[in-house]
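Request: Show me your protein:
***
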Amino acid sequence: MKKITEKLEKKLGISGLVDKLIDNLSGSELNTILLELFKTRTKQIVPSRLLTEYNQNRFCSPASIDPISYKEDEVSWLKSANEYGFKPVLLSPLAPLGSSSVVGCVNQNKVVSALRGSEVVSDATNVLALKVANEISNDRKVEVKKYCTTHRHTRGQYYNNPAFSAHFGVFCMVSGGVNRSNNSFEMVLAKEHILFYLNMLLSLFKKEDLSLEIYVTDNANQISSQVKDDILLMYQNLALEFKLTDFKFRETTNQYYQIIQFKIFLNYQSNRIDIVDGGFVDWTQKILTNQKQRLFISGVGLEIIHKICQGVL
């Protein structure tokens, strides 16, 4: 990306163009320039060009699933999560600019940045984290906030796989609050998410096709062991594979999670599909500058599950 920027600066005859725009213009001033730029560019577009863009731009293609049956799946997941105490939220298609890259480890180039200080939502859990942080900051007595949503994520990176598209449907949940006790707080949050997904997936797939893996940091063995014992107790009659792996998160390529992370895999047509992912993140700690904050996030590839159940994947 840097080489491309330097090439463009050389073409325009303006050295350090990007740095000059960032250092010398406020956010509103830069937004004004970009608005004028896009308004001028759209005046040069003829109607026939729109059809070409519609056919060629991967961000503009409609999904290949039946919207009615998929919406029914969304409603089913939202209702079930609501019964677990996770309040459904209908999010905006846009989020504040930097929602994914500022507190997380996502490269902004993988996000579709927009005008007016916004970006297209690439991960709904980031937005739900902002909602949790905002409510906790307005009411310090709040202990736990639990939300869920379904959303159509849009990602900037190119997927070299016909099964994946630039936009896709997901279901997400977050639990956030202040840790006022010991490890029992973290155990409750983690167990609620894991048990919810296990119950939902066991209603859709055979138990022998599902496997649960929990990854822990060195100082989280007590939490993970208790979570494991509780889950095995509840599912003692099921042949559910359970893998507990100790590793140092900072030595892996995944810099996302803190304390523990869990994944649920589905064996489908000789493939092991990663369909659920979740764990603790430090986003609310950063946003509220409070190390006692805890946030557990999770998400499932709802569109992938829909395609599998419909036999179209």
Remarks:
- The chain has two domains: 2-44, 67-310.
- The CA atoms of residues 275 and 305 lie 8 Å apart.
